[in-house]
Specification:
The complex is a heterodimer of chains A (290) and B (201). Chain A is an all-alpha fold. Chain A is built from 15 helices and two strands. Chain A has a two-stranded antiparallel ribbon with strand order 1-2. In chain A, strand 1 and strand 2 (193-196) form a beta hairpin. In chain A, helix 6 (122-131) runs antiparallel to helix 7 (135-150). The longest helix of chain A has 19 residues, at 48-66. Chain B has a single domain, classed as Tgt2/MlaC (Nuclear Transport Factor 2, Chain: A, Roll), CATH 3.10.450. The termini of chain B are far apart. By secondary structure, chain B is α+β, with helices and mostly antiparallel strands. Chain B has seven helices and five strands; from the N terminus they run αααααβββββαα. Chain B has helices at 2-22, 32-51, 56-70, 73-81, 90-111, 171-185, 190-199, and strands at 119-128, 131-139, 146-153, 160-166, 169-170. Classes of the chains: A mainly alpha (290), B alpha+beta (201). Chains A and B meet through helix 4, helix 5, helix 13, helix 14 and helix 15 of A and helix 3, helix 4, helix 5, strand 3 and strand 4 of B. Chain B: This is Phospholipid transport system substrate-binding protein.
Chain lengths: 290, 201
């Protein structure tokens, strides 16, 4: 890990913050006039063969780290004869699944860790919101940061969320989108998983520009950043049922995870629009036209 | 939004009244209100099950029934099969639709596990082409609220939802991809697909 992070601290000394920030603004300043990029439909994956290789590797790592449960076996469920009336077989599978659910205590600890990491990551979000010229979002997350860091006991509890100030997540990938940079090709990254060319570039910039690097001295800044990564890593456990169902139950986990990533990402980029640009509506038109 | 809805509802009420005179009973024009009402009933049913305090397995059974009651499962099934539905025989289509319904009910019934301890809240509705998009917000334990949309259609004769979008993830496109992959794996054999669907979850 250290070999990855040392260049950061080195870079920090050679690249004065303000100069770097101004450079970025000047570099992309001309793009802001163009408005956000179009939200594409369909799948743009010219490097599918390579991506599939990385996906298989990711799956192997995931199974080795977490110990794959052989849940595939439970798929042997007899179908009920009359529609809509589940048989006892379905009950068994459901109860089998229920016992695999994490204990409540474990999930509380995970939520606290996730909250803590998410809260520490707020300065990075605020910077991105400002770069996107969304001062409302920046103020919103600044307020969340203030409330959760104090009343929320250093961010362990998402008090602001409970009080009606939910997290507005953003990243430099979205900033690039707002600046007019299009999605690019789909990519499967080792460990990280599905991405696009734009989002990968965004991730790299987010990594370097996270204010935590510059606010805290070395090595506290590494610890702080580490918590933000751990917060994100908790998703793998908090949504383990969902991830497992995609990885192990689907006929083609690569195609499923690619589609789900792109749809969710496009939804985020369009700020909540789905049906305006929905290919499936045309499929229903075709069906009703038959 | 509110004024927009109520203005629309006046027009819709007038239209609805005319339609009810002209059409046989049971058929009526879908409006943003009627679609919202459908999703509202769906949400109430889901919330009722969540609040019932039943065992998890009993809840999944209830969720399955809710899914079958409110979704246009056969249209969803046919769209998920894609162009391959044109080369399937009538009896194959019937068997496929039935297997698909069981598959979807199991898969998404299980998914509703995550809703236990949470609630869905109706947010807004708007017409999209010939359909109505109804937005709800899911408030789940320990999570930022997230967006669940339903696309409601009356084109099969009854108002039902034909698609669901969880944070933008389109259920029908996701299942179309999955069915396509299953069919590919079986070299395009529809009977083998039907058998696989009976086992998949």
């Amino acid at each position: 890990m250290k070999f990855l992070l040392n260049p950061m601290s080195v870079l920090k000394h050679y690249l004065p913050r303000s100069a770097g920030a101004i450079g970025i603004c000047v570099l992309f300043g001309s793009l802001t006039a163009c408005g956000p990029a179009d939200i594409p439909t369909g799948i743009n994956d010219p490097n599918e063969a390579r991506n599939r290789g990385v996906h298989e590797w990711n799956k192997r790592v995931d199974t080795q780290l977490l110990g794959g449960s052989e849940e595939g076996a439970e798929a042997e469920i007899p179908l009920s004869e009359d529609e809509g009336q589940p048989t006892a077989g379905i009950d068994d599978s459901i109860e089998g699944g229920a016992t695999d659910a994490p204990a409540r205590g474990a999930s509380n600890a995970l939520i606290a860790l996730s909250n803590f990491g998410t809260n520490l990551d707020n300065p990075r979000r605020v910077v991105n919101s400002l770069l996107q010229v969304r001062p409302g979002d920046a103020a919103h997350n600044t307020l969340r940061f203030g409330i959760n860091s104090t009343v929320g006991i250093l961010g362990l509890i998402d008090v602001a969320g409970a009080a009606g100030l939910p997290e507005i997540d953003t990243d430099f990938g979205e900033t690039l989108h707002v600046w007019g940079v299009s999605e690019g090709n789909f990519q499967e990254l080792p460990v990280v998983g599905p991405s696009t060319q734009r989002d990968t570039a965004g991730m790299a910039v987010d990594f370097v520009m996270n204010p935590l690097w510059y606010v805290f001295p070395w090595p506290q800044n590494l610890v702080a950043n580490g918590f933000t990564w751990a917060g994100e890593a908790t998703d793998r456990f908090r949504y383990s049922d969902t991830v497992d169902s995609i990885y192990r139950d689907s006929a083609d986990s690569y195609a499923q995870s690619r589609l789900i990533y792109l749809q969710n990402r496009r939804f985020e980029m369009s700020r909540g629009e789905v049906t305006e640009n929905d290919e499936s509506i045309d499929l229903f038109e075709e069906l009703y036209g038959d | 939004m509110v004024t927009d809805l109520s203005r629309r509802s006046f027009g819709a009420l007038g239209l609805g009244a005319c339609a009810s005179l002209a059409m046989p009973s049971g058929a009526f024009a879908m409006t943003t209100e009627s679609a919202s009402a459908l999703v509202s009933k769906l949400v109430n049913d889901i919330n009722k099950v969540i609040a019932s305090g039943k065992s998890e397995s009993a809840m999944y059974r209830d969720f399955e029934k809710i899914f079958v009651k409110y979704a246009d499962v056969s249209s969803i099934a046919l769209v998920s099969l894609g162009a391959d539905r044109r080369r399937a025989s009538k009896s194959q289509l019937k068997a496929y639709t039935k297997a698909y319904q069981g598959y979807i009910a199991r898969k998404y019934g299980k998914r509703f596990r995550e809703f236990i301890g949470g609630r869905l809240e109706l947010q807004s509705a708007k017409p999209v082409k010939k359909y109505v998009e109804v937005t709800t917000i899911a408030h789940l334990r320990g999570e930022a609220p997230f967006d669940v949309k339903f696309l409601v259609s009356d084109r099969s004769g009854r108002e039902k939802f034909i698609n669901m979008y969880i944070e933008g993830v389109n259920m029908v496109l996701t299942e179309k991809t999955e069915i396509g992959s299953m069919l590919d794996r079986r070299g395009g054999d529809i009977n083998a697909l039907i058998a696989d669907l009976g086992k998949a979850s």
